[in-house]
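Researcher: We are triaging several targets before committing to wet-lab work. For this one, the compound of interest is zinc ion. I'm pasting the protein sequence and the ligand SMILES. What I need is the predicted three-dimensional arrangement of the protein with the ligand bound, expressed as structure tokens, so it can go straight into our comparison scripts without reformatting.
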Amino acid sequence: MNYKRILVTAALPYANGPVHIGHMAGVYVPADIYVRYQRAQKRDIKFVCGSDEHGVPITIRAMKEGVTPQQIVDKYHALIKDSFEQMGVSFDIYSRTSNKVHHETAAAFFKKLYDDGLFEEKETEQFYDEKAKTFLADRYITGTCPVCSNPNAYGDQCEKCGSTLSPEQLINPRSTLSDAVPVKKKTKHWYFPLQNYEAWLREWILEGHKEWKNNVYGQCRSWLDNGLQSRAMTRDSNWGIKVPLPGAEGKVLYVWFDAPIGYISATKELTDQWGDYWCKEDTKLVHFIGKDNIVFHCIIFPSMLKAHGNFVLPDNVPANEFLNIEGEKVSTSRNWAVWVDEYLKDFPGCEDVLRYVLCANAPETKDNDFTWKDFQDRNNNELASIFGNFVNRTWVLMHKLCGGKVPKLHEDVLDEDDKWIIEEIQKSKVKIENLIEEYKFRDALYEVIDLSRKGNQYMQKKEPWKKVSSNKAQSTSTENQKLIDNCLHLCLQLTANLAVLANPFLPNTAKKMLYMMKVVDKMLDWKNAGKIKLLSVGYSLRPPELLFRKIEDEEIKFQIEKLKSGLVNEQGTSGKAEGIRNKEQATNSKMDSNKSEIVNPKPEITYDDFAKLDLRVATVTACEKVEKADKLLKLTIDLGNETRTIVSGIALHYTPEEMIGKQVVVVVNLAPRKMKGIESQGMILTAEDKNSKLRLLKPEETVSPGSSVS
Ligand SMILES: [Zn+2]
């Protein structure tokens, strides 16, 4: 489909705490990269977001602090908005769900579904706290776990043994608000029958959106396979959007009903043409979210939109997984997090560094780990030593050898290396735009750095400084001057290209580069990427600016200590609020102080499950790179009485030469899979450490090929 306009939404942050880097990596950095790229492509695009200011945790936090819910949301709305601005997240509007336009829009949406007879009205018994005079969400009831006797189990889950619970199962249940024993009380609510949309959702997602990311598609399939049920779309509370029906006093819209409608309200606030973005079929709607919001954006909200009938549906929902910190899950309640507002104070002028690290290490396909050491390494070894170094060398040499002006390109002495670098510039442009369109921002960013790496290689090969006459009395020969000119001309054009290509990722850096080149913003238009005539011959340029400073060991040590000392125990309180994104319940993920615990454990399996794997030792007999795939190697392996071909994503960690003769462990009964047109007949086992470094698994000493592994 040819889209005329794009509407990008980013998950509405929950206004009961600041944003942390997990939010940035999961949602806002990738969304901003995508939007900046589309803007540079001159596409019609709008980028909307805002604070989500309703829901139970806000009222509870207000109660605990002795302030009004409005005071809570005012404080965090301002703080969050400011963090986004400083990080360069370029929303067209950052609104809030307490605005009048949102109240009207959400209430009208609800009313339309009600008038169309799409809700079920049900009276049920819910737990109620008579002291605090409020109904209690499951999370606000604690008691003793019937499975493991943990005295602090929650009404929905025991975090000690992992059992899923309901409040009825708890022994000695009590309210976390007042310690009162919860009682059951009758209440009426409006339920949205999701099961009525199941057949349509199956068709729309499972058949129609096979291109969605595996983690998103898989989660949708599992929800659909488990069967959908009616879900209450109203709550008993005084904080939120009043249910627009007679006799519904003391009831508000469920926060997950109203929040996604916030995208519509924000667009209304932004432009009178909002209807074009929401109601015309040729709009491409993209929701950027974290994995905890997949069901709301792929199942519930689309069903609501479908039921309403006037709106477009998302074209894609590129949700990311979670970012852990120093090997442990983020826990906002225990203050195990890196807060963006604090980062900005501790590292002024380093906004792009954080954007870089969070993108280079983004949890795009699985949970990933942020470590301060990796942050330092990526800054010092990639941004500063590769990208920054290339630009700086180019500028210094251009001032020294070419009088501070863009030298000529002498076509008559253009050699193979020159042609190579010109080609690489053009190739990078194509690769990066394809990767961004596929939401593969990590790989796209890798290409940007890789192009600057190639720039360094090119300059190292040409060594223009050696072409200068060593005898001061003697001027450099014309022939040598031509070589110097060509090298620096191309390095300067490459720098201009790097500014265009890096701009979506590192907007502040691109700005600095524009200043050095004395050119205007227009140069960053994407159509300029891949061209080698961006800077005119004879144009004089400014002295170099430092793009990235080194980050010192002490700074890293300080951050690690700060993280550890800020940690609060499970019952304690910290200056920071509870789970920001989890609207119905405060995030309170278990974080044992026992560091030896496995990060992201998988569910237990039986021996029979394990025995299904056919693992064998094989010897690599041949190996080569896969064309047009930087990460893949094609291996020929000997399994004793069988030879097979395997494609493996280890090319960044092993060269083909290194692989030949090595023994590896192979899953031989894995269904074959085509990668880049080559059928891979199995999979090689590797170990991956925190820094994504891969190492092969192999027998301690050589065994005969085909030996089974168990
Ligand atoms: Zn338990």
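Researcher: Any quick observations?
Model: DSSP finds 19 helices and 26 strands in the chain.
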